[in-house]
Amino acid sequence: MGQHICICSRSSITIENKKYYFIQKLEEGGFSYVDLVEGAQDGRFYALKRILCHDREGRQEAQTEVEMHRLFNHPNVLPLSGHTFVDRGGKTEAWLLLPYISKGSLWSVLEKLRDKGGFMPEDRILHIFQGICTGVKALHDKGYAHRDLKPTNILLEEDDRPILMDLGSMNKARIEVRGSREAMTLQDWAAQRCTISYRAPELFNVESHCVIDERTDIWSLGCVLYAMMMMEGPFDLLFQKGDSVALAVQNPVIIPQPCRYSQGLQTLLSSIMVPNPRERPDINWILDQVRHLCSLERPVEANMV
């Protein structure tokens, strides 16, 4: 007799009055789990992010993440398909239902290329980077900053359309720091929520009277661009060796030479990764530069008679 799988035995969950079947575990983090589920009605696959809320503050953070998703309806920002809060044995779990992107993250694409000894062609880098910047512009235009941009937090659709995910560290773009206590609070928060090798210099040693703004994202964007060009972030190896990233980010980034990419792309990277946030460009300037570089990529066919 052939194997007969009974659908009724598949464990199911309900979110916003819709039923979903559990397929498999996808990944596990410190405070969250991601499962692959299938919609009973639409047959689509979704990523179910389950966040463990240890206290009221944890629940509030999960609620904020839900609200951040709800703020944006943009092709380069991951939408929220549904959510619910579940009480399990005295503990609360936030369940966030998100579209499942089968191609995975930008990081997984870079790892596959690196393992084969390959690299990303410049036109592909520009195409992906333009989409990432467009997503970041949508966040900044609404007065928010992502605060944890990195290749693992960028999903890629089949057509290489990048989608920003993990909005759990997002907050108001402009944070006024008044005094050393506020500076330490922000510094501690950044140490927990902003990945060290993609963290902006101003978040390592927060000054007691300053304004931290969306230019933290610009630095992280530079690290992402560097990773696409070099197959790893500029401070990844340093961090793995146990050296001080906080010290390294105080200096302008050095692009290893010889470099296979155009001078234009190298110049763009150098102008983004400036340690002093006041000298960093904004997202509109970067997008203008990327569009200009994209226009230089194409004329080859156009000139052929």
How many β-strands, per DSSP?
A: 12
Q: Name the structural class.
A: alpha+beta
Going across the biggest sheet, name each strand in turn.
Answer: 1-2-3-4-6-5
What Rg do the Cα atoms give? 21 Å
- Please name the CATH architecture of the largest domain: Orthogonal Bundle
CATH class of the largest domain: Mainly Alpha
Largest β-sheet summary: 6 strands, antiparallel
Shape: globular
CATH topology of the largest domain: Transferase(Phosphotransferase), domain 1
For the record, the count of structural domains works out to 2
Features:
single chain; 305 residues; alpha+beta; Transferase(Phosphotransferase), domain 1; two-stranded antiparallel sheet; 12 strands; 38% helix; disordered N terminus; disordered C terminus; nucleotide-binding; Kinase-like_dom_sf; protein serine/threonine kinase activity
